[in-house]
């Protein structure tokens, strides 16, 4: 009887999700029999099956499979929703002075990039969810992308509507590819100006030092993860304060609008957000001399991206 290799094949991948397809690269035992390795997950416990693959959901391929850039040449750029929260029913939450400056500046910036901007002021969670659900049910086939901005108070893992707190996935989960097929394969952008905790960043002083020196199968149908093509940019890292000037607006929104205004059509979005992070990190410092503990503090934005291509806000062509 021939011996069979019992060690794990060298080409077996170990992602966090179980694949139903067999790996195309074959492993062969020393009898010449094919052992087709399966991918396995690293999770403990049982997998929830609340979002199984539904073959009835069909989405149109918006761009070539291995294209480097998203298709930003649809008839419309797309909707930009701004949820601006200034006043709250929650007793411990103060009014957010300066947020209207953020809202006005961002509205002008996004309109210049051809977005259809819609602003919502001080919505309760029920009304916010209702509006998000309504937009997710719209047909976005002729749009490049969608953009959602939330300006509010927050704490680790939560944001605040006018009347209560909620998790961000309450908003973005409506736009996954299985729930909103007309946005499948298109960018879904979320910008969040809110605290993520109460920790302070005092910064570190840096001292000067000496200087140092197209695939052939691309047209075939293919499956994408339901959570692909999202980007969520937070004004600060988890656990930390996010700063806002009562007259000029928040550091993050000031920097985001500046970069989009100056270079929005020149660089791809991830490059722009790198410069936004640079601007917030290097150009701002809290000014609260009456409260020494809060004085001269720093901030660093944080971006989570599931984008699969480069995103550039190119000039819209007339149709």
From TrEMBL:
Domain of life from the UniProt record: Eukaryota
Domain named Caspase family p20: residues: 76-199
Domain Caspase family p10: 220-315
InterPro entries per the UniProt record, alphabetical: Caspase-like_dom_sf, Caspase_cys_AS, Caspase_his_AS, Pept_C14, Pept_C14_caspase, Pept_C14_p10, Pept_C14_p20, Pept_C14A
Coiled coil segments of this chain: none
Keyword Cytoplasm annotated: no
Keywords from the named record: Hydrolase, Protease, Thiol protease, Zymogen
GO biological process: negative regulation of Toll signaling pathway; neuron remodeling; nurse cell apoptotic process; positive regulation of neuron apoptotic process; proteolysis
UniProt GO molecular function: BIR domain binding; cysteine-type endopeptidase activity
SUPFAM superfamilies: Caspase-like (SSF52129)
Gene3D superfamilies named among the record's database cross-references: 3.40.50.1460
GO CC annotations, alphabetized: cytoplasm
PANTHER family: CASPASE, CASPASE-RELATED
Family stated for the protein in its record: Belongs to the peptidase C14A family.
Protein name listed in UniProt: Caspase
Species of origin: Anopheles farauti
